[in-house]
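COMPLEX REQUEST
Ligand: FE2/S2 (inorganic) cluster
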Amino acid sequence: MTQEERHEITLVVNGVARQARVPARRLLSDALRHDLGLTGTHVGCEHGVCGCCTVLLDGEPVRSCLTFAVTVDGRELTTVEGLAGPGGMSPVQRAFAECHGLQCGFCTPGFLCTVTAFLRDNPSPTDDDVIEGISGNLCRCTGYQNIVKAVHRAAELMAEESE
Amino acid sequence: MKPPPFTYHAPLDLGSALDALAGAGARGKVLAGGQSLIPLMNMRLASPSHVIDINRVPGLDTIEDERGGVRVGALARHSRVERSGPAPLRRALKLVAHPVIRNRGTVVGSLVHADPAAELPAVLAVLGGSVRLASLGGVRDVAAADFFVGPLESDLRAGELAVSAFFPGLPPRSGFAIHELARRHGDYALAGVCAVVTLGDDGRIAAARAACIGVAATPQLVELEGGTPAELARAVQERTDPEGDIHASAAYRRHLVGVLAERAFTDAAREAAQ
Ligand SMILES: Cc1cc2nc3c(=O)[nH]c(=O)nc-3n(C[C@H](O)[C@H](O)[C@H](O)COP(=O)(O)OP(=O)(O)OC[C@H]3O[C@@H](n4cnc5c(N)ncnc54)[C@H](O)[C@@H]3O)c2cc1C
Ligand code: FES
Ligand code: FES
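STATUS: Structure written out below.
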């Protein structure tokens, strides 16, 4: 087979412009993990069901396994590695730790990205809102109860800190 | 679970997109939200030699009022239409996948994908809408009744781009409802019913339409005259002949169609009376 054509792309990941040369078929999840070495984004199913590859594209959560890296050339991405601020873990990360919202942690990067965007759009959610908000993320360990608690706790922390 | 190689086209305007599609012919596929195409490619169920990515084409991310309804452009994503589209689409979209999938998936992509278990083709069918297809040869509008040809098969021809879809508004004294049953919230439905009813001067249902989801190869449209929701639901059930699969038996789907149709007609009539 002839050499597959490669495309020069720039992804602004967690505020840093990063270049990569990738074939068009490179999934964004693989570009992040293999080309850029950011292995915090996890890959479970590669067909959109499990949610653990969720990252923020210009602030909106999307499935990185259902996005070609070439499609998002030039765009801004936030991965789990970029959620913590200079002062330490983000309120969502702290709430997950505090409420035992994780066990093995495989699903956690996807939940953290999803919940970060969810609480930005809906800072004081009801239980139903939370369940709808995380409905596209699967967790094999926790049974979800502590994740739901963590989302409410994160909302509280964010409200306290914005006062 | 990795997609096969393809030649990538990223046109910056509609003309170049149509050129690329014409060049690729039957071996080309449009990439919109990618929420159906990329899973199929990851599983190697689809292997287009050319992928024409329309995400950079300007002018397609539109939701516009047009005489008698609303026109939704090819890059209007589910999430945006869910916030600012017409009411029937807003309600149906709450049943489509999960919020994160809806951030990328497009309404027009869902119509072209033509999954028999998808909600939006049934909404287009029950409202009597159409899809606008453009190619180097010109533009044509195809009515929903002709657009959905078979499971995962629409009337889109090689070289064509679906630029928009038109969703007509409801006539006066009419209401819309959609009900479905899925194993898990956000999954494709085992069965579903979209209904539109119009009330007569006496306040009773004078005309009713239902488009059934997941019971036939395409959204099955049933048009009826007046009756109570229960009578109409029975008529819909009599006219549908769903098949069984690993998700549900034929008998169970048939039962569901009756129950869901009655709920949908009841709710649509209530809305029409308001
Ligand atoms: C986990 C998961 C759950 C889902 N659940 C549901 C559900 O419950 N109900 C539901 O309806 N859908 C569901 N979907 C599918 C989702 O709604 C898709 O976004 C939608 O079906 C396709 O839209 P898209 O823009 O992503 O299209 P793409 O994936 O980009 O394209 C799909 C097909 O349409 C063609 N196409 C797309 N746009 C055009 C165009 N403008 N012109 C010509 N051809 C075009 C492509 O070539 C391809 O063949 C689900 C998806 C996932 C991953
Ligand atoms: S790996 Fe992307 S959704 Fe499962
Ligand atoms: S913590 Fe193990 S999958 Fe969620």
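REMARKS: The pocket of FE2/S2 (inorganic) cluster (ligand 2) is lined by residues A 43-46, 48-53, 63, 65 (CB under 6 Å). The mean pLDDT of chain B is 96.
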